[in-house]
């Protein structure tokens, strides 16, 4: 079996179908050994807070949707910014959304904690571009 590109990937999306499809793509292209899935950004933040100083428990890659009830992806990123420097150094965050709104793309790209904005659905080419 081929070694996965990353040990742990975190998916945050309120849409279970998108989580399922993204998980399948990640698995198919051997991108992540473990995939943590959260439909609630609040629960995902709690997980990150509890493990923010333990790099063995942290994901290396985080994919977060923008439009979710209770807390948007942008609100998630505001809270993420308050977490430890250990976490922020270890994790790479990508905003993944079906939105093609220029303002959403600009806001994501202006966030220093966001590596890139990607329109759904994640592709093999996109995964291959992640270092």
Structure explained in plain terms:
The chain is α/β, with parallel strands linked by helices and 131 residues long. It has a domain at 8-96: Rossmann fold, CATH 3.40.50. It has six helices and five strands. It has helices at 16-28, 41-51, 73-80, 85-90, 102-110, 124-129, and strands at 6-12, 32-38, 61-64, 92-97, 114-119. It has a five-stranded parallel sheet. The protein is globular. 30% of the residues are buried. The mean pLDDT is 94. Residues 8-131 form the Response regulatory domain. It comes from Flavobacterium weaverense. It holds the Pfam family Response_reg. One of its GO terms (biological process) is phosphorelay signal transduction system.
